[in-house]
Amino acid sequence: MMAIIGMFFQDGLTGSAWGDWANYTASPLRAFENELGVQAPVGFWDPAGFTADGSTENFARRRQTELKHGRISMLATMGYITPEITGKFPGYLSPSAGLKFADVPNGLAAISKVPAAGWGQILAYMAFCEVSQDQSAGTPAAAGDFGFKVLTASDPEAKKTKLAAELANGRLAMMAIIGMFFQDGLTGSAWGDWANYTASPLRAFENELGVQAPVGFWDPAGFTADGSTENFARRRQTELKHGRISMLATMGYITPEITGKFPGYLSPSAGLKFADVPNGLAAISKVPAAGWGQILAYMAFCEVSQDQSAGTPAAAGDFGFKVLTASDPEAKKTKLAAELANGRLAMMAIIGMFFQDGLTGSAWGDWANYTASPLRAFENELGVQAPVGFWDPAGFTADGSTENFARRRQTELKHGRISMLATMGYITPEITGKFPGYLSPSAGLKFADVPNGLAAISKVPAAGWGQILAYMAFCEVSQDQSAGTPAAAGDFGFKVLTASDPEAKKTKLAAELANGRLAMMAIIGMFFQDGLTGSAWGDWANYTASPLRAFENELGVQAPVGFWDPAGFTADGSTENFARRRQTELKHGRISMLATMGYITPEITGKIPGYLSPSAGLKFADVPNGLAAISKVPAAGWGQILAYMAFCEVSQDQSAGTPAAAGDFGFKVLTAADPEAKKTKLAAELANGRLAMMAIIGMFFQDGLTGSAWGDWANYTASPLRAAREM
């Protein structure tokens, strides 16, 4: 009611239902719409009407105040965060009072520990900042420029960009520090210790399915603030259904793009083939009335076929499909938790696909449609590499500015080069050892005395830091790096990185960018590992309590990798889960070895003579190799395959602890009376099975893409390798 009355007034007064900003040519707010801090998507935003008087003097005064508050808040926010991450300074804050930095608590409680002299220093510094420069209207200091070049620049545009960024960061910091103050004041903890919220209604749900690391229980909208378990169960049931529908919908988008459409007719009566149905949202227009009836009927069946009232299995998402449930409560919990996570991801994915499809008319968002995108300016730049192509998820290049792009590229090159040197500095001493002799003869410091990694920082003498800084300064000032110069593009004349041939130079610089990006990731990982373990390489001997220790002597742990589980499947330390996965790995490996041999053998030895199916008149020689063979298998053949699979599964007891659970089905080719010989054979089988799993997947892809089980070279008529082979 309030909204529509407002719209009527606005429309009647301006002649525009939405109030066209172009009509307000005489508005005093026009004076400030191009000021610093006016940023997309909000634009100039002053809901309290501070600028309604149009006074530029008042605006400048408030801007000066905003900058100061923002800077103080950024320092205060870092003051909260830094001690939590890096710890406190060593030594004394006040030697006269016997007060150590370590004795000062984080957050608001620190105020009570500051000695009188400390408050004096704080106030003196504040006074110095206020009175050391002329801040009257029109002076640089009035606009926040105190001569610290980190915040300003000789280039007006660069200066404007930096100050705009500072304003945005300051506004964020003001919000952040107020939030921290409230949290600290309410809980007595600078970071808000969850252990303090013993009476929170959210406690009722912190052990529910879907509460997963690293976020934990997360309900920013406060749906569970009433503590109602009934409402929680209803929402969980809804979440499961939405997640399942979204998973099906996401696969419905993806599958036709990869596998193609079904053969034949979707609706014979309407003459509609599956091939005639487009992918994505456009498919909706092609579904016949009978199809909508089937969809609605199936939805109704799912809803009414089982009792879903509170407390029933169906209310918890258990409809009796054993792929999602299990007789073992822990296994069932794990499966349902995984389903929830996958469903949440699918809900995000399908909404993204809908938007992309609706905006571009293409289920996958055809890049060819974005002809006017500012990103087009950079799609052929160095560093744009397959398979990602031009990748800028943070939108740094969304403004299309080639100047900003060049500046960021120059910075990326420098960071990459430093990171490559730093990474090699970590690796080389571990492999080759240290230099002989002294690093600092005057200090009696040998190279051999300098530890690897972060601990080396404490050993660098003052003269060493001077040399490091001098070299950095030389690299920065020895050449003109302004826009358009070779140095701005990273070319400092070192011919190892450049070349007289433009294509060779481009290739080298592209390789350098890729290596630099990898090195930036590598050195950060090394820093974290070193900081957490005290070892530049993360000494495995330090992880004595790791749950992975339980599996380091298992079959399949082979040099040079050792125990390798990058996905963290064994992080829970469960021997039961490990045994189940090992059993599955053995089966998959054995099937893959048979499948791989099934691809290779007919190519080498030919087919078996005679008939595969005498009743169908089908000879073995008529069955093609590879995936195409699937279309030739008669119904009885599929029956035999399924019967053999069932026999392997049910003919022996495979429960935990039995020989079959460990892959021993009594076929002596894989076992032996000698335990060591048996262990060697099973280890070899695991390795061969892993290789076969990789091999058969590669064969499937090659066969599916080329139509040939072995990838017929004759199909690659346009390959650039043709030129090399024919030379």
UniProtKB/TrEMBL annotation:
Gene3D superfamilies: Chlorophyll a/b binding protein domain (1.10.3460.10). GO terms for cellular component: chloroplast; membrane. One of its GO terms (biological process) is photosynthesis, light harvesting. Pfam families: Chloroa_b-bind (PF00504). It comes from the Eukaryota. Keywords: Chloroplast, Photosynthesis, Plastid. The keyword Metal-binding does not apply. This is Light-harvesting protein.
